[in-house]
Amino acid sequence: MQNIVLIGFMGSGKTTVGKALAEKLQMDFVDTDALIEAQEGKSIASIFETQGEAKFRGLEHNLLEESDFSNAVVSTGGGMPCHFNNMDQLNKIGTTVYLKVNSEELTQRLIGNSANRPKMLAGTKEESKKRVDELLQQREVYYSKANFTIENEGKRMEEVVANIINFCQ
Ligand code: S3P
């Protein structure tokens, strides 16, 4: 089977679904944020803080350029598809699956979780929702280039995993 690449907003379930998918298919699980953290020896939040977002986006892009994934489920950072030609590159790496979740639900999942998510600013629920809406609106155009879109809300994870496997086979 080709690599499977999960894309979608922060909190859309890429890691949870990706790990379950990899286990079920006996594929490797790869997380692009974790690869960057290991390579740089610091957290994503610290890279943003000390070197800025542009540096992080460069690291994400280089990772894709140099990637050599095989038999892998790749979980990507939420902004990765939306910079440079990364979405085209991701479509070359494997079958891309967009885990789609509405902004209300995303806000619920992300609220109070901004410390290690530099793109989310701490604030009220209304402010968080506004931020999610704003980013989603900018990003949807990239996410919609995925080979397959699946809604990941109000569904059991097993169902989501089964749907993805069905599509990728
Ligand atoms: C980001 C999402 C994060 C991480 C970084 C930036 C984004 O990954 O790459 O904080 O721009 O949406 P997750 O989607 O895994 O939270």
Structure description:
- The protein is an alpha/beta fold.
- Helices cover 53% and strands 14% of the residues.
- The protein is built from 8 helices and 5 strands.
- A 5-stranded parallel sheet has the order 2-3-1-4-5.
- α1 (14-25) packs across α8 (157-168) and α6 (103-110) packs across α7 (125-143).
- The chain is globular, with a radius of gyration of 15 Å.
- The termini are close together.
- The relative contact order is 0.21.
- Shikimate-3-phosphate binds at residues 10, 14, 33, 44, 77-79, 117-119.
Entry keywords:
169 residues; alpha/beta; 8 helices; five-stranded parallel beta sheet; binds shikimate-3-phosphate; 14% strand
Shape: globular
Overall radius of gyration: 15 Å
Structural class: alpha/beta
Q: If strands are numbered along the chain, what order do they take across the biggest sheet?
A: 2-3-1-4-5
| Uncertain regions spanning at least 5 consecutive residues | none
> For the terminal residues, how far apart are their CA atoms?
7 Å
